[in-house]
């Protein structure tokens, strides 16, 4: 069974840490361990969302940390077998909607410059480049783009588009 944009968005809990660690290992050379993911999922200054496949496999997750009126995406992972089906977009729009409701004004992330698909997705959702971190990813030596999405209610139609899931 596959996951896609019709799959429900849920809160990722500490009990889901093993599945989250397995998914992270499929997606990244430097996978996060279950105990670290459990701590992030239960941290009151964070927000962790997931999409589950009908077969009870974790299809995707996003974890963000909140501080004052800003948030940073710590990780976003989509199972390789479920990519290009709208899961990342669903996770990001759900996150943006939740953060906006909490009064968060800006959302930041880092993405490898070599991850062309992710950069295109983020740009399509309204993220803009605000910096570059040279050699940020130790395993690959890749640079990271620092990107920002303005979520404040006064930010205009882009936020409504991101928040309600419509494409840009």
Word description of this protein:
A hairpin with a 5-residue loop joins strand 2 and strand 3 (58-67). By secondary structure, the protein is α+β, with helices and mostly antiparallel strands. It has helices at 17-27, 34-42, 87-101, 116-124, 157-164, and strands spanning 9-11, 46-52, 58-67, 70-78, 106-112, 128-133, 144-150. The two termini are 29 Å apart. A seven-stranded mixed sheet has the order 1-2-3-4-5-7-6, sandwiched between helices.
Defining key terms:
168 residues, alpha+beta, 7-stranded mixed β-sheet, 5 helices, 29% strand, disordered C terminus
Per DSSP, the total helix count is: 5
Mean pLDDT: 86
Q: Strand tally, please?
A: 7
Q: The biggest beta sheet, please?
A: 7 strands, mixed
Strand neighbour order, sheet with most strands = 1-2-3-4-5-7-6
Strand content: 25-35%
Overall radius of gyration: 15 Å
Relative helix content? 25-40%
Classification by helices and strands: alpha+beta
Shape: globular
Low-confidence stretches: 154-168
């Amino acid at each position: 069974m596959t996951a896609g944009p019709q799959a429900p968005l849920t809160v990722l809990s500490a009990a889901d840490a093993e599945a989250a660690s397995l998914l992270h290992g499929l997606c990244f050379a430097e996978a996060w361990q279950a105990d670290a993911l459990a701590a992030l999922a239960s941290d009151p200054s964070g927000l962790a969302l997931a999409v589950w496949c009908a077969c009870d496999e974790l299809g995707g997750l996003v974890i963000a940390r909140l501080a004052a009126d800003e948030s940073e995406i710590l990780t976003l992972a989509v199972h390789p077998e479920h990519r290009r089906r709208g899961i990342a977009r669903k996770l990001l729009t759900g996150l943006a909607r939740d953060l906006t409701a909490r009064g968060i004004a800006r959302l930041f992330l880092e993405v490898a410059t070599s991850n062309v698909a992710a950069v295109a997705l983020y740009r399509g959702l309204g993220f803009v480049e605000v910096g570059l971190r040279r050699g940020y990813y130790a395993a690959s030596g890749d640079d990271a783009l620092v990107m920002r999405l303005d979520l404040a209610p006064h930010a205009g139609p882009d936020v409504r588009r991101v928040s309600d899931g419509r494409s840009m």
